[in-house]
Amino acid sequence: MPIQHINPPGLLQFDAMSQVVVASGGRTVYIAGQSASDVNFEVVGGNDYYAQSVQALRNLRTAVEAAGGSVENIVSSTVYLKNLTPEIAGRFLEALAIACEGKSFPPHAFSLIGVASLAGADLLVEITAVAVIDAAVAA
Question: What is the reported pTM?
Fold first, then answer.
């Protein structure tokens, strides 16, 4: 069964997001919060929301690939942004546009949540996700 992306009339529509994602017939994978940390828990990207977002999305890609999938299999994510403002949200959306080797991260259902802090004092971004692997992606 395929992963189906739906953007119903009457709801906000933009290229980076699907309002509804329907998935069946595959393994469900739950991915822990991915931040801009490297394997030594050192922050990549300094105090830059864009750079940290790119690294967190790359770490998310690494995690889903370790489970045997790809970013196209991600059906939902929750993005936690420290001290969220419209400008900070914009920096994250800019990172989405280039996070996959210069290409846009595939659309999926996601929410942006503002938080006061994350696990590390220097972390600005954390992303949890759900993927359905072994399901075909419908065009």
Answer: 0.87
